[in-house]
Amino acid sequence: MPAQTPLPVTLTGRQVRLEPLAMNHLDELFEAGGGDEELWRWQGGPAPQTQAELGDKLATVLEAAERGVYVPFAVVHRATDKAIGWTTYMDIDVDDERLEIGWTWYGRAYWRTAVNTESKLLLLTHAFEDLGMGRVQLKTDHLNHRSQAAIARIGGRREGVLRRHYRRPDGTWRDTVYFSILADEWPEAKHNLAARLGEAGHAG
């Protein structure tokens, strides 16, 4: 089938629910990740120290969503029914049947848990099986080894590095590592993701 433009939708798993991101998630998001320098180091820092500062970042995402640049989701932890981070579809190209999963963060309390694995399973299933995408890409800073390992664990294949790609907030230059999953690789990746979710208490 021809690829379809992603639209705001709610995707529900056992651990998390991905729902359209909105300003009313701000209080819970700040509780989960406000002021955490290590978390925001990889999100274009500096870490938001107040709700207003995080609100500015959230407003930027929502404004991009209004222009059709992003389709953003709040990541809601079902056990608490609280937003613990956000993630987006971005770099969307329906003609070329591709999109990127990016600008993703979760509160530190949820690192190395099932949250990332299940979030990616939901997003990838929707992209490949509902939207008809042929390629989903992910990218990260070459110094962010935790993120690179997490992408590899969900089945992302490392493609290469764009050197001197972005200037970081501190003025240094970032090389960007690209990964992807293709539609014909998705069945195996999906099987492996489902198996990871079956591992008690350790998926991330």
Automatic annotation (TrEMBL):
Instruction: Report the protein name in the record.
Output: GNAT family N-acetyltransferase
Question: Which InterPro entries does the protein's record reference?
Answer: Acyl_CoA_acyltransferase, GNAT_dom
Show where the N-acetyltransferase domain sits: 16-184
Superkingdom is: Bacteria
Pfam families listed in its UniProt record? Acetyltransf_3
